Amino acid sequence: MVFWAGAVGAALFVLVFLVDGWRRPNYSPVRHPVSALALGRRGWVQTANFLVSGSAITAGALAMVFVGPSALTGVVLTAFGLGLVASGVFRMDPMLGYPQGAPAGIPERHSTPHRLHDLAGAVVFLALPLAAAIGAFTLPGTAWKIISGCAAVALFVGLGRFSRAWEEVSPRLGLIQRAVIILGWGWLAALFSALALGLS
């Protein structure tokens, strides 16, 4: 049951930001990062998404630590889940023109909550490919080793592309981040589902 919570948490996170980002006034899913959805009057939706999904994923990850099949993968995914929760506690600063009236670019100086949000984001986006890489060696079954290995490579490449897009203030920043998230969270939801069905 706890593994199902992790699977639902991962899938719910993607579903919520896709739907909310599509319907949010003045918000561009192609340009703006997912975290920007936590800003403005409807920001509570993404904040709750961070908190609920992060908590569910953390619960599933802790089950991996104590039940298996890969305690080390579970430890790294626990850090990932807690990073999501922290991302909901600390919001990013308004920028890139969102919400309306925010600076058009990325300000040089940031608030303390934004810096803590950045730190939490670094944990999230580094922990997931690391967990997949560890899973490529520790998860049972050849199929899951191959799937996890491929996911790890794709996520590390995607993380590098997203980092460059952020530095360059790319107009496709949000699109690149979403590609990384959908791939990574998809791997995680599939893994938790397999564990719930008896992968051992």
| CATH domain fold name | Rhopdopsin 7-helix transmembrane proteins
- Number of domain modules: 1
Major sheet? none
Fraction in beta strands: under 5%
Overall outline: globular
Instruction: Kindly provide the name of the CATH class.
Output: Mainly Alpha
Q: Tell me, rounded to a whole number, the average pLDDT.
A: 95
**Helical coverage, percent range:** over 70%
What's the count of strands? 0
Give the class from helix and strand content and strand pairing: mainly alpha
Q: What is the name of the CATH architecture?
A: Up-down Bundle
Low-confidence stretches: none
Query: What is the CA-CA span between the terminal residues?
Result: 15 Å
InterPro entries: DUF998
Pfam family, one: DUF998
Transmembrane segments: 6-22, 43-65, 71-90, 119-137, 143-163, 175-199
Protein name: DUF998 domain-containing protein
